[in-house]
Amino acid sequence: MRSAGPAHDAASVWDIATPSRRGRLPGVSMAGFRARTTDLVDLGVVPYPAVTVAVDLGEGPLVVDDFSGRQQRGSVVVGLASGGVRGRGRDIECLQVRLSPPVAYAVLGAGAEPGATVVPLDDLWGRDAARTQERLRAARSWDDRFAIAEAALVRRYAAGPAVEPEVAFVWGRMVANLGGVRVERLAAEVGWSRKRLWSRFRAQIGLHPKRAAQLVRFDHAAHRLAAGHSAARVAAEIGYADQSHLHRDVVAFTGVTPTAVAAAPWLAVDDVAWAAPAYLSTS
To answer: Which residues pair with residue 99 across a beta bridge?
Structure first.
């Protein structure tokens, strides 16, 4: 997520907690967020190559709107296709979990449709969502909360469906190559037809292969822009045909220009909250 509007510098608005030890489950990153202000905070979600579970722990409900205008309150799952999603609330406190798509498939269940925009956590976890949220609210520290969340994730991962090895391999190649891969070549490497790869990848990862590769590349570009690099330099380094190509991709994913993405203050917290990106793991 990134804060919307010049009044909010996300790095100063939030107290951020991260786990003190490495987690047991590869492909998972967690961070805790507590707003330092009682003012209304309005956040726009920057698409990211991981599925995000946001567990609402605050007094007032976290309200999340998707691009179609549908509204969810409380704990939600934000899928890979998250352009146009906004969250808002007062006294926000939440635990965010980022899941690599192969892990999300197991943890959230085969029916979760990880590419879907916003889904209430209750719809996917049933009563387990409420029980887990109650335990997280009652925990005395963020480390306790991280341990509770990790135990729930490990349990569900062990019981959940696994992505096919070919799908996991293709995702791993996309990540390793920063999205700069050809779908036809990947299909040949795993011995599948392009049509079969397209279908199985879409069903298990949540996006078709080409879109997923574009998302991985966009994520790297967005962070390079936020680090102060020029659009021309980023386009050349990340593998875009030219600066116009980068511009089109950024607008397609965010609805704003590369200049606006570069100034998005929420990206400034990523080095603190998400030092080890979840999507880098294929497990």
So the answer is: 28, 51
